[in-house]
Amino acid sequence: MLIIATYDVSTESSAGRRRLRRVAKVCERVGQRVQKSVFECQVNQMQYEELERALLAEIDLQQDNLRFYRLTEPHDLRVKQYGTFRSIDFEGPLVV
């Protein structure tokens, strides 16, 4: 499944800035950054649940915001992109 993970972490304190870095690192392990606090992730149900648990362990529910969007198939009809960003084709061949 393709999910969009978004977050808004309060950076008013040094603890908030540390949380922001940790949240970004968790997301970078699973998906690709498409904007500063927005990640596209191609995951199965188990990976999705692990990502959710890891992010909930990092954020402060009183100060921060975390949202997940599950995109339904077919993705090419639901996602439009403009500009210079080139996303990874999760379904395409892997070329190293």
From TrEMBL:
UniProt entry keywords in alphabetical sequence: Antiviral defense, Endonuclease, Hydrolase, Magnesium, Metal-binding, Nuclease
Family: Belongs to the CRISPR-associated endoribonuclease Cas2 protein family.
Binding residues annotated for Mg(2+), in chain numbering: 8
Keyword Hydrolase belongs to the record: yes
Biological role: CRISPR (clustered regularly interspaced short palindromic repeat), is an adaptive immune system that provides protection against mobile genetic elements (viruses, transposable elements and conjugative plasmids). CRISPR clusters contain sequences complementary to antecedent mobile elements and target invading nucleic acids. CRISPR clusters are transcribed and processed into CRISPR RNA (crRNA). Functions as a ssRNA-specific endoribonuclease. Involved in the integration of spacer DNA into the CRISPR cassette.
Organism (species): Thioalkalicoccus limnaeus
Pfam families: CRISPR_Cas2
Cofactor(s) annotated in UniProt: Mg(2+)
Coiled-coil stretches noted in the UniProt entry, renumbered to this chain: none
Protein name per UniProt: CRISPR-associated endoribonuclease Cas2
